[in-house]
Amino acid sequence: MNQPCPFLPSCGRPLSWRDLAAYREERGAELYLLCLEYAQQLWLEGLPARALLAVDRALYCDVPATAEALRSYPLPYAAIRWLVSQPSDAFTGNARVHYQHLADRVRGDRAAIKKWRAWAAWALVRQARPELPSDPQHAVQEPTLAEISAGLAADGIAGEAAVWQACLSE
User: Fold this and answer.
1) CA distance 170 to 168
2) pLDDT tens, position by position, for the chain (170 residues)?
3) I need a surface site. Which of 3, 78, 118, 160 has the fewest CB within 10 A?
4) What does pTM read for this prediction?
5) DSSP letters for 95-146
């Protein structure tokens, strides 16, 4: 069994994707916390890749900067860094490529902030796991840290760029 991620909450009851599906239309603070709780559960169950996907879903929720959920559990940049930094044979795939593809392919509502959040996660993975290669078959212009910070500041919530930068500094 893995040790709990210190940046994710635990809800004390078993969760499934069905719990998240109940919030299909509303993607606010309640879903945000539920996704983080589900990520913790998946991590503890030895499913790190699925845990990371649950964190991604939380990252894409539309939570105002003043929400209580963010005071308790800030945007999950620290959780992403922590999860990918842990030794695990159960990770499948390459988290760097995952975020590279995600950032380049995001569409729809709130696409700009979703793109910058994916690039922010990509940068954290690159820093935490420099041995992970990029996808040479995926031609994309990788942004600089300054561009990511500017994108988060322009399209994200108040203080988001600073939260991300603090995770980069760890």
Assistant:
1) 6
2) 579 999 999 878 899 888 877 777 778 899 999 999 999 999 999 999 999 999 999 999 999 999 999 999 999 999 999 999 998 776 778 999 999 999 999 888 899 999 999 999 999 999 999 999 988 888 889 999 999 999 999 999 999 999 999 999 87
3) 3
4) 0.92
5) HHHHHHHHHHH--STTHHHHHHHHHHHHHHHHHH-TTS---TTS---PPPHH
